[in-house]
């Protein structure tokens, strides 16, 4: 049905775009034919102390070795700061919009450079050296970006831990990467509430004895205990520090950061990114995918605690000399019009958010959007999970008034940046499809045996060859890196996602492969059924999981959240089953529907299907770790009202 909807490239976007359809074609061909030549040119987008002469040296076989630009020398902070000083020292680099709509701030490139150097010098004075790991546990404040860049400046490897994580999660991450320094704040602010960061950090530090110092940003001014000899106020140590700090020369393959990410099994993995390839990829994708143009205001709503914040609030935009907006708050505080009010206030041109936010806002109707202007918007983007065509079209029609192309960007912490995505000036859009691989990305689909599928097909999404932004290893556990990503389909990077490729070669991500159902021998993406359910006018959100079924192997269990004001009833359940049968086919009929006032989500907004599968399977004694849930009470409610 939605496969037929095509939205052509807008002439007004194509005009002056970085990459039009012809250029996209040419780039794709060149990057495949001559990766060394192509990436040698693209590498010039960042600042090198010694430009690389060796470009690609990668193997997905055996030990899996990934090296890009390996004889190049650079410092990431120079690309983001120093080289902009002459031309745009007085241009705003970061706009900060507070949780409270009356608080904001602007920091120029010159200011940011000085702040980064001061903190870098202060860290050096504490004995932090190249290669040391520094953990950041911070709210969405300017100091987060300053701290990341200050680490980069002195060659320290940052590990950002999302400010919503518990003391336990923070402790295990501190210990795993053996951080000696933690940078945190007294408190954070979100949706009108305070987040007790320093108190959490103190709790975590009881089990992370390797941490010698804690730098504390005074953010809210809340009373927090400071431990003599260990804890230092950020403002005190930076005030005294010199405002110039020579950037540490780094090899292209020296680590830039570690970011922990959850897998389907085991403890979180420390995804390691290195300096040269990551910076090239962040800059390349930010420029082309958002069609970023000189002087534009760009806003990514992610938290810096996730990879999206790393690549698309800090490194990509700043490498490109952009003005990047950083938002401390949430979409519905003080009210559900906030995103669009911020867009109008700062005249945002490019807006990048998550499908879960779009669906939540869609549920509240058009009025909160329509009371704002949004005339500045030119490009919209989404990331994080499959976007159902229903939400895509609402975003397109209501938020963007059919003026702004939507880039549905598929990528992962592991990929460093976008890998499958439309380009606004080049790609005909189809609502719900992440469309085509970027030039330089060799995507493919394989069946269960690893056989590469041709043409129209559905299978496991793999990437056949390396791209510069790829993760290099799991920190201190290269074997786990090989096992997780290269063992399932030897010689290929396995994403863990499933996808369908249509007759035009467009990719439709169906969700994690562990979410793919097999019902009576038919394979179905849970995202597909969810999308059908959400397309019903009364449904706000849906999550579908498999449940054990005697006859079909797996049955379909759907959790459904209704729009505000809709009443659950048995008649409505029947109606939804009939609706899904009509939308997809009888094989997709839900076997059970449970009304869900809320769904268990991680703090980054991802639905925790693991928990939903357990509830559906009536294995509620063994729910596993629920500590990363945004609201654990949701789970109790669901258990109580489980169906069947
Ligand atoms: C960037 C980010 C990665 C997983 C990935 C996939 C899902 C991300 C998506 C998408 C469909 C998109 N995902 N973007 N699914 N369409 N545009 O989210 O990284 O937190 O590591 O998650 O998110 O399942 O495998 P990360």
UniProtKB/TrEMBL annotation:
Biological processes annotated in GO: acetyl-CoA biosynthetic process from acetate
Database matches in InterPro entries: Ac_CoA_lig, ACAS_N, AMP-bd_C, AMP-bd_C_sf, AMP-binding_CS, AMP-dep_synth/lig_dom, ANL_N_sf
UniProt entry tagged with the keyword Magnesium: yes
Enzyme class (EC, first level): ligase
Domain AMP-dependent synthetase/ligase: 82-463
SUPFAM superfamilies from the UniProt entry: Acetyl-CoA synthetase-like (SSF56801)
Residues that hold ATP according to the record: 384-386, 408-413, 497, 512, 523
Stored Pfam families: ACAS_N, AMP-binding, AMP-binding_C
Post-translational modification: Acetylated. Deacetylation by the SIR2-homolog deacetylase activates the enzyme.
Binding of CoA, residues: 190-193, 308, 332, 520, 581
Residues spanning the signal sequence: none
Record: residues binding Mg(2+): 534, 536, 539
Xref: PANTHER family: ACETYL-COENZYME A SYNTHETASE, ACETYL-COENZYME A SYNTHETASE 1
The protein's name in its UniProt record: Acetyl-coenzyme A synthetase
Gene behind this protein: acs
């Amino acid at each position: 049905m939605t496969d037929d909807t095509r939205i052509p490239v807008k002439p007004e976007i194509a005009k002056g775009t970085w990459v039009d359809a012809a250029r996209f074609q040419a780039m794709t061909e060149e990057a495949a034919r001559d990766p060394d030549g192509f990436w040698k040119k693209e590498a010039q987008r960042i600042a090198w102390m010694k430009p690389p002469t060796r470009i690609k040296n990668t193997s997905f076989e055996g030990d899996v070795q990934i090296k890009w630009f390996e004889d190049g020398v650079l410092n990431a902070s120079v690309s983001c700061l120093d080289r902009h000083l002459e031309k745009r020292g007085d241009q705003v680099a970061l706009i900060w919009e507070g949780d409270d709509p009356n608080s904001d701030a602007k920091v120029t490139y010159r200011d940011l450079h000085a702040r980064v150097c001061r903190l870098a010098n202060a860290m050096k004075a504490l004995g932090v050296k190249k290669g040391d790991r520094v953990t950041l546990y911070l709210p969405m404040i300017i100091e987060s970006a300053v701290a990341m860049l200050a680490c980069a400046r002195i060659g320290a490897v940052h590990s950002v831990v999302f400010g919503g994580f518990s003391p336990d999660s923070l402790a295990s991450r501190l210990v795993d990467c053996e951080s000696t320094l933690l940078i945190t704040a007294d408190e954070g602010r979100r949706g009108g509430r305070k987040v007790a960061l320093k108190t959490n950090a103190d709790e975590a530090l009881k089990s992370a004895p390797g941490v010698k110092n804690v730098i504390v940003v005074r953010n809210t001014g809340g009373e927090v205990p400071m431990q003599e000899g260990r804890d230092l106020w950020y403002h005190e140590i930076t005030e005294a520090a010199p405002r110039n700090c020579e950037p540490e020369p780094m090899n292209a393959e020296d680590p830039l950061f570690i970011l922990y990410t959850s897998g389907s099994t085991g403890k979180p993995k420390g995804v390691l990114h290195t300096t040269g390839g990551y910076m090239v990829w962040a800059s390349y994708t930010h420029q082309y995918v958002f069609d970023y143009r000189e002087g534009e205001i760009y806003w990514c709503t992610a938290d810096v605690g996730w990879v999206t914040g790393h690549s698309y609030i800090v490194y990509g935009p700043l490498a490109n000399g952009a003005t990047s907006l950083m938002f401390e708050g949430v979409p519905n505080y003080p009210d559900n019009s906030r995103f669009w009010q911020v867009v109008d206030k700062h005249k945002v041109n490019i807006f990048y958010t998550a499908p879960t936010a779009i669906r939540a806002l869609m549920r509240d109707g058009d009025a909160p959007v329509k009371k704002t202007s949004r005339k500045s918007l030119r490009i919209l983007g989404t990331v994080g999970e499959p976007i159902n065509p229903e939400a895509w079209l609402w975003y397109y029609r209501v938020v963007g008034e059919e003026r702004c192309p939507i880039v549905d960007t598929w990528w992962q912490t592991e990929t460093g940046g976008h890998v499958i995505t439309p380009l606004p000036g080049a790609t005909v859009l189809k609502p719900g499809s992440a469309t085509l691989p970027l030039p330089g990305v060799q995507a493919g689909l394989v069946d269960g045996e690893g056989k590469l599928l041709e043409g129209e097909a559905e299978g496991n999404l793999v990437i056949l060859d390396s791209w510069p932004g790829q993760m290099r290893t799991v920190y201190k556990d290269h074997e786990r890196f090989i096992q997780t990503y290269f063992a399932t389909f030897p010689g290929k990077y396995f994403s863990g996602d499933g996808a369908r490729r249509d007759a035009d070669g467009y990719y439709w991500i169906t969700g994690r492969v562990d979410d793919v159902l097999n019902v009576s021998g038919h394979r179905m993406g849970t995202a597909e059924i969810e999308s059908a359910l959400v397309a019903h006018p009364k449904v706000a959100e849906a999550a579908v999981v498999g449940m054990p079924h005697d006859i079909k192997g797996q049955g379909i269990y759907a959790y459904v959240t209704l729009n505000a004001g809709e009443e659950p009833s048995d008649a409505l359940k029947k109606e939804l089953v009939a609706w899904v049968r009509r939308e997809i086919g009888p094989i997709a009929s839900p076997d059970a529907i449970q009304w869900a006032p809320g769904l268990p989500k991680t703090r980054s907004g991802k639905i925790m299907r693991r928990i939903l599968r357990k509830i559906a399977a009536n294995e509620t004694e063994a729910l596993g770790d629920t500590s990363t849930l945004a609201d654990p009470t949701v789970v109790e409610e669901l258990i109580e009202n489980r169906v069947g």
